[in-house]
């Protein structure tokens, strides 16, 4: 297995593994320690297990040889974090502006839709959204809803890796700004699934989607669009069926799902974007695509994704390129006020 494609600290186990069973599995891995820890989470019907003092990919080899149904947790790479072509997921670069942009987009002092209509809600699965003056709203009518402040068991359970010089933690804030620009009346429901290095464990994103399907209520807790700026290629050892299974309940509710096509300039399909029930968005215009954007018949739409201007945490602004921003803009296009 290619270790770069898997979480170094998480695996999943089929079936129900109580603490006593974990003790037996730990004995297989390390007689002196407790390398496996039950997190209390499930994803796609599998138990999510944290690994201590042992690499998850190596642990899977040992456990499988002993007959345990173990699987290393695949990773989805976020839309714009790694250098283009370096990884099999998405990747591109960003540049912080040293001063405020020459033409700052207008702030939204009044974002309520016309009478009789309600705000649309865009669920944003990403790094989480941080404060920025351009995203401010009134407390009684917030622009931003943090899922981890609700009854959200997956909230905040991401692998915290700070990548040194790669200051990518503002990715979700940037996307929220683009959604607000495209849909001034929208609200963003922020589901924090991605770490600061731009990596998403499959069990985390599946857990988020399962929670979102249960959270959705057409009247009390609406969700009108889902935006996902991450993806991975399928493989023989790790098919994408578990992800599709988690997505389908949302698709069956009629909720539009949007995902970035990726930044590797290739025609090979990337998931979740390539699912039939998801709109894959590349960077470009019409039939033209940016030199970094993935392309092909599975890419459904193209939106601007080159040197896009957006907000960053701490009141900063940046220009950033990648299909993540194309997807966020298209998600905003779909977010229109609804009849109450």
Automatic annotation (TrEMBL):
UniProt similarity note: Belongs to the peptidase S8 family.
InterPro entries: Peptidase_S8/S53_dom, Peptidase_S8/S53_dom_sf, Peptidase_S8_subtilisin-like
Flavoprotein found in the keyword field: no
Name the UniProt record assigns to this protein: S8 family serine peptidase
Annotated keywords: Hydrolase, Protease, Serine protease
Domain Peptidase S8/S53: 120-335
Annotated Gene3D superfamilies: Peptidase S8/S53 domain
